[in-house]
Specification:
Number of helices: 8
CATH superfamily of the largest domain: ABC-type transport auxiliary lipoprotein component
CATH architecture of the largest domain: 3-Layer(aba) Sandwich
Order of helices and strands: HHHEHEEEHEHEEHHEEEEEE
Structural class: alpha+beta
Shape: elongated
Distance between the termini: 87 Å
Amino acid sequence: MATGSSAETEPPSINLIISKDVGGRQAELDRLAATIRQERNSTPFELNQQCPNQEASRIRKEVVVAGFNVEDPDQTVFGGLGAVGRASSKWLYRNLLETGEVLPLSAPGRQMFASLQDGATRAMQGNTLEQYSVVSRQMGAQFVVSGIIRSLDVNRPDSWDSSYAASIKRSLFSADTDRAFVVDVVLHDGYTGRVVYEQRYEAYGRWDIPRTGKVDFGSPVFNDSDYGTEVAKLFDEITDDLMSAIDCQALLVRVLQVDGKDLLLDVGTKSGLLPGDKLRLVRAQSALQWPDAPPKLWDTGVDLHLHQLSLDTSRAWMPEEGSVINIREGDYAVMY
């Protein structure tokens, strides 16, 4: 009887409440949602090449020179070349610095490629690197140069054979003592992940260092050798090609802070920008599920005007409130 008298307890009902904030922020949220929907149905903003462009040519862009990987480290043993990857990075950094036309940053200890087989050519559709450049984000520079040294091999290793038969052969025939320097160089936009330039370079020179001699890559003794002279010419060629590629690229500047119609930008007087210069605001959209993937850029149609520059930052004014066009920290301004 006790069982019959006790009614089964029903679970409490759950009331799902859906509300709309009338007269509050709902109108603003609806407008921003409409903007996002419109952008998704349009074409993302593309950074167009700017060469030749007199306005763009006076701008000095920051370029990180990352460390160079060596595909076969065993090839550095002959001649005791030492840390060829780091030395190559420093060599290219000095060359870029001497041009006076870019703002290079040296990062010889930063490696860009986990897979040397794919290396610089590992890209996805749209010619962008698969992952956002950590080096670029950490050092605050738009462009990153890196590379893979593919070969340091000698043409004929037996030319340095110390046996009696080899010495007789060398006395009768001229020995092939040429050595290779083959390197893949890649320049990419670390903000967008876009590959800007990539090329394989090759140099060959006579290795006239004694058979048991050891010389550091880039040292005075190395530079005075025929092989070192050819490598130096190659680095000059690489530098010229990189400068031409960088000159043609649009400058992307990170937005550091938004205060109404005023912006703080991550660019200063060293860049060559001047008060009165105009830049276009673009919104950077990243996917939450792929936080390291390069963002898509969307044109806001709003120009900003620089009015104050310090050594490392600048301030700009825009005709719209940041909240109105959904501009915030992490978006970009483009010099076009």
